[in-house]
Each structure stands twice: as C-alpha cells, then as structure tokens.
Specification:
Elements lengths: L11 H13 L3 H8 L3 H60 L15
C-alpha cells in the first residue's frame, strides 16, 4: 500500500515534442535515452497522436459533407424558385401581348397629360 507508483506523468507538450523529434531523428535509441523514455512508449505516443489526427479529420469531413448537402439543398430550392419565376414572367408577357385589344400597354396616365 505504501509503495509509490513508478509511472511518470508527461505533459502533452513533452509528448508532442518527442513525437516531432521522432519524425526527424535517425537514431531512435539515442533520442529515447536523451528523453529518458522507452522506444515502446515513444511509438505508443506517436500512434495515439495519429489516431487523434485521424479522428479530427473524420469529424471535419463529416461536418463538411453535412454542410455540402445543406448547400446543395439550398441551391436546388433557389433554382426551383428561379425557374418558377421565369415561367411566371413568360406567362405574364404572353398575356400582355394577347390581351389589351388596342395594342397599347396597360399603364396609368402619363405624367403631364
């Protein structure tokens, strides 16, 4: 019960720095000796960091896919609205041409008359 734990706690900055150094070193054994850790621990940190990065990438991708779907839906809605308005304008123009018996445009009095 009175035994102290032999496990040391390393800060996130220390772990990140160690993994960065691992990516550029040519001598892992020397690096581990310098840092006072085992190669297994260093490789474990590297794999955990990679898993976290993959997870963050997946979350970001899901968010982008969701946003993309929303934008496509909004674009479709606006396209349908524009198509509807174009068709309505064509009908109004056609009614104007065939309607007013005298051929004049249907408007109010001109100013100055």
């Amino acid at each position: 019960m009175g035994q102290e734990s032999k496990r040391r706690k390393f800060s996130r900055e220390f772990r990140d720095s160690a993994v960065r150094r691992l990516s550029i070193t040519t001598n892992v054994t020397e690096l581990c000796r310098e840092l006072g850790i085992s190669p297994q621990l260093l490789y474990f940190w590297r794999e955990r960091q990679r898993r976290e990065q993959r997870k963050q990438t997946m979350v970001l991708e899901r968010g982008l896919l969701r946003e993309n779907a929303q934008l496509k839906e909004a674009l479709l809605k606006k396209t349908l609205e524009v198509d509807f308005l174009k068709a309505a304008c064509k009908k109004v123009a056609a009614l104007r041409q065939t309607g007013a018996g005298s051929g004049e445009t249907a408007s109010g009095k001109r100013s100055g008359d």
